[in-house]
Write a structure and sequence with these properties.
Structural class: alpha+beta
Helix content: 10-25%
Shape: globular
Length: 216
Amino acid sequence: MAVRPLPTIAGVVRCSAQGATPSGQPWVNVLHFQYAGGASAPGSTEITALDGQLGKLYHGTPFAGADNILHSCRASCTMSQINYTPLDGSSTSILKPHVATGASAYALNAPSEVSCVLTLRTNHRGRRYRGRIFLPPFAADCFDANGQVVAGIAAGQIANFAGLTAALVPLQWVPVVASYGYSLLKDGTVSTWTPFATPITSATMDLRADVQRRRK
């Protein structure tokens, strides 16, 4: 599929968290947040407030009773920045540095391509209403003898995302699944629709890890 321009969705900001895996390959997580239900356009002040909370999803002090993402990664897994792009068709991106490293003291990494996955769910069914975040690679002790994610690790990540969601309420930000308005069908044609955003109601994590081959 040819590269398409980003869609226009009222009040939505595309947030690209970035860093490097132990293999040296980059990892990127793309999340979306909507300001004031799309009734108002966020500016630099609102994005700075969002950044102050979104950073806690990855590093520093996590939300109460939860683990941030880099807490489960070794120091060879790093984070460098979050890039914020308002989906208004005209605003430039705002880059916020987030220089951080994994905090796990365990001696071994899981392979860089092995990724725990947060599934972002809404009150609607279907692929247009569901998102997935392939987290940066965790330390090897985050997996049990059968290769599954330790249940307590998964629960901590789910709780931290819930903590982020709650912390954003007074700031008028809501995490959303952004549907960009197109998809490639099996016959090679492209299906299109009007782009839209749907509020996320919960996050889940399957205990089976997934693979991102480009992170090898």
